[in-house]
Amino acid sequence: MTPGSGALRFGYGTNGLADLRLDDALALLADLGYDGVGLTLDHMHLDPLAPDLAARTRRLARRLETLGLEVTVETGARYVLDPRRKHGPSLLEAAPDDRARRVDLLSRAVRIAAELGAHAVHCFSGTVPEGCDEDTAWKRLAEGLTPVLEAAAAADVPLAVEPEPGHLLATLADFHRLREALADPEHLGLTLDVGHCQCLEPLSPADCVRAAAPWLRHVQIEDMRRGVHEHLPFGEGDIDFPPVLAALSDAAYRGLTVVELPRHSHAGPHHAQLSLPFLRAAAAAATTHRPVATPTHGVPSATPDGSSA
């Protein structure tokens, strides 16, 4: 890595280990040598709506400390609020009560993150509901995030909004629209998904990192092809990773860089085992310019449907 910038720290997302109990997933990642974990709050992994949340969170904090794992809190669970609507309800819903449910979840995530010592809370906007015009959607998003940002400021935990293909806030330009609408609050930051940059940004993923550096609070990483929103294991897409990791190092990014393979939980331990050596080799190649070998996965991927994670 660039002299003086420090080594990058890699994690793996629990949304890619959904078939494992949380404690088993954490033990696996520690044994494999990961620096941390991207913890998606979900029914199987620290359910944010189940009883005794505070006590369960304290136990998890002790477990993370024992294993030496850092953590970021992610809020992309598909059905944690509504068993029939993927990622619903969002901050963009017509019904105020629906929007309030998402605000409550994000506020809970902030409190959990503070208790765990997480470096950020990740979230995204959601898709624009049918019949809702774009200006109204942007207004709802800003209004919904305002109390969450107040909670984030009180807890001193950054809120890292992710541009998500197909959502209202889909691009880096959209993030800046939100930032300006909210008058650039100190605790509003960015989750940059490297694959999403490859999918739809006009800049290369490495240039996206450089452009996003001042607001970067969380990073997700996987392979992807241009124009196709499908999270892929490393080596199965088009991304050139050494320049991306060099750009992260040059930006002095200090958070976790978390592998995001939510559609590969059927082979989660396998992909977790392969991903860390690949990323470490790519980080080394960022300075030595050696080619990075493509991992041999050996396990069939889940049948992709091209939709959002």
UniProtKB/TrEMBL annotation:
One of its GO terms (molecular function) is isomerase activity. Residues 287-297 have a biased composition (Low complexity). Residues 287-309 are annotated as: Disordered. InterPro entries: IolE/XylAMocC-like, Xyl_isomerase-like_sf, Xyl_isomerase-like_TIM-brl. Pfam families: AP_endonuc_2. Residues 26-281 form the Xylose isomerase-like TIM barrel domain. Keywords: Isomerase. The keyword Isomerase applies. It comes from the Bacteria. This is Sugar phosphate isomerase/epimerase.
